[in-house]
Design goal:
Elements (H helix, E strand, L loop, with lengths): L2 H23 L19 H13 L9 E5 L5 H10 L2 E6 L2 H13 L6 E5 L13 E7 L8 H11 E14 L5 H14 L8 H10 L3 E7 L5 H19 L8 H16 L3 E9 L3
Parallel strand pairs: 1-2, 1-4, 2-3, 4-5
Antiparallel strand pairs: 5-7, 6-7
Bound molecules: S-adenosylmethionine (SAM).
S-adenosylmethionine binds next to helix 1, helix 3 and strand 2.
């Protein structure tokens, strides 16, 4: 499959699934996982999602005159938070036209149109900014969907100003995973969530360094993330229970169930992880 055709498939997936699944069953604006503190569960999901956004962006030293590109911006929850908290300008990029409409509506409600904009782009191909023009490239759990991450990171390097930061979190396979464990635990995630492959921390590090960026830190959130997997498992078991008592779900729910199961299986067995990375273009 070519990069462009994979992008079209991902765009269609997010056009179709953003409202009925992500916004309905996870959160109305943040489509990523939470950073939980001891004792928190999905009842405190909102604050854990905001904590994750903060954890990824806060080491970048954003200023009110900074330009931030949010690569794979969803419906704009993180982009709007950055604009509100730091007063910066944010341009969100997504491959889903429907997400752009939803994000623009949220931006209008928040009266942040002068600070926050959204554009269509396939980040596996091109980031629509001039060389050396952006202070921070930020991305939350999106690059796992990009079919050409090497190209995305080369483009990130190209558009960053000298001294600019690349700050992201992403879905990873555990380092040193065997080929057979990858096939058993990670490939089903890729198949169910429209991804070509997942990086490991080592393979990501190679791509980042090959593009010319210097890695400042790569952080595994450890046990704080496992509550996400437990929440997915509880959600899956609730669907099964409701089905067993005769509740009729729409046929599309079959995909959501496969997605939940493949993800919590790999996560709870420690073959899957979500980590954050901070990298920098030399000044
Ligand atoms: C799991 S969502 C994360 C959304 C957002 N970062 C957040 O945290 O709320 C993944 C996002 O990546 C976007 N995406 C996937 N592949 C893309 C590509 N090739 N180019 C641009 N955006 C892409 C999707 O449209 C979606 O907005």
């Amino acid at each position: 499959m070519t990069t462009a055709s994979h992008g079209q498939q991902v765009g269609q997936y997010f056009n179709d699934q953003t409202e009925p699944f992500y916004l309905e069953y996870w959160d109305s604006e943040d489509i990523h996982f939470g950073l939980f503190e001891p004792g928190e569960d999905e009842n405190q999901l909102k604050q854990t999602l905001k904590r994750m956004t903060h954890a990824v962006i806060s080491p970048t030293n954003i200023q009110p005159d900074s330009l931030v590109v949010d690569a794979g911006c969803g419906v704009g929850g993180p982009a709007l938070d950055l604009a509100r908290i730091y007063g910066c300008k944010v341009v969100g990029l997504t491959i889903s036209q429907h997400q752009i409409e939803l994000a623009q509506a949220k931006t209008a409600t928040a009266e942040l149109q002068t600070q926050v904009q959204f554009e269509y782009a396939d980040c596996s191909i091109h980031l629509p900014f001039p060389d050396n023009s952006v202070d921070v490239v930020f991305s939350m759990e999106a690059a796992c969907h990009f079919s050409d991450r090497a190209q995305f990171i080369r483009e990130t390097y190209r558009i960053l100003k000298p001294g600019g930061y690349f700050a992201f979190n992403d879905w990873l396979a555990q380092d040193n995973i065997s080929a057979s464990d990858y096939q058993t635990f990670i490939q089903p995630i890729c198949d169910n969530w429209v991804m070509v492959s997942l990086e490991t921390r080592s393979s990501y590090s190679q791509l980042i360094q090959a593009a010319g960026l210097e890695i400042v830190e790569f952080v595994d959130f450890g046990e704080a993330m496992l509550e996400n997997a437990q929440a997915l498992k509880r959600s899956y078991l609730t669907f099964l229970l409701q089905e067993s008592t005769g509740h009729q779900f729409p046929p599309e729910m079959a995909l959501w169930k496969k997605q939940l199961k493949s993800l919590y299986d790999a996560w709870l067995n420690r073959y899957f992880t979500v980590e954050r990375c901070l990298a920098r273009k030399n000044a």
